[in-house]
Write the structure tokens for this entry.
Amino acid sequence: MQNRLLAGLTSEELKRLHPHLEQVSLSHGQALILPDEPIEFVYFPLNSLLSLVTVMEDGSTVEASSIGCEGMAGLPILLDAGTTPMRTLTQIPGKAVRIKAKIIKQEFDRGGALQKLLYRYIHTIIVIGSQSAACNRLHHLEARLCRWLLMSSDGVGSTELPLTQEFLATMLGVRRAGVTEAASQLQSKGLIRYQRGYIQIIDTKSLETAACECYGVVKAEYDRLFG
């Protein structure tokens, strides 16, 4: 499986970057970017899924965005920020390509296809953050869970998702009991199959119908900008 951003580069750009690209294995819950610490590497997921989360003073967290094969973790580097108050961790384990932040910044500053692709990607992250804020405020948990599962499936290119209820609750910013009830409802309708630490999407079309409008908005923007 390819990362869509890397796949969009020219052969010349890939040739310059290739000596610096390193494929790595990411484990569940692995912290890749920590709040207020210098960003040393950026990550291009292949079949892993990363979460960009907001951390509150009491330690509670809510997911702001997920990053799969369509994206990159470490965008503050491109914006001359260097650090971020947010945390990036591995949501679904798998492979990713990493590169030193200073190298990707140098290539970004050259212009070319990489810069254009990453400008578009920055725009989609803004759209996702705005849509997530509205979604968390206005939509009920079951619809939000459907959206989250669909986006996760798109990000890793699979309908099989190794996810625990505890992690789902953390990402959605709700109690575990709420996730248990919502997942049970989806399973009873035949949309998913849920076992401890594992979710399989059975009926993607029906899950899309059950999801809130936010999934369609974000997916349409990805398709418009990246084909």
